[in-house]
Amino acid sequence: MRRRALIATIGLVIAAGALAASQPVTAAWTDTEFATTSVVSTSLVAPTKTSCSVDVVLGLSATFNWTNPTTGAPRTGYVFQIYNGATLVGSATPAANATTQSTSGLLSTLLNSVTYTVQLRAANNLWRSPVATGTFTTTALGLITSCTW
What we know:
Helix content is 13%, strand content 36%. By secondary structure, the chain is mainly β. The protein is elongated. Keywords: Carbohydrate metabolism, Glycosidase, Hydrolase, Polysaccharide degradation, Signal. Residues 1-27 form the signal peptide.
């Protein structure tokens, strides 16, 4: 009797499996909509550093020059920052078409024998380009003697 019950159970399992295999898939669908536009990715391009110069008459300012990028996302301006180590000591926001920025008027004092770091980035609202970095150095008297870009 047990043997018959086992054979009947196996038969029912096989029949149920065959029945399930012949059932249609109910989770499939076809979407007739399609994309009609494309997405393009871009970024702000860093300005190209060209030259820097020191005011040789007074030695109180350095001027940094660059060329504007012609590729990438449009910029709305620049962010120009001066650091003494990790401390921000001066900043300016040149216009989108600017190609030069002086340190004149951006620092309240020039410290003796310090190398300041200059950072320039193109900006568009909260977006920023990679940084273009330069330096300028002061003497023991606090006069700017050199700059690099």
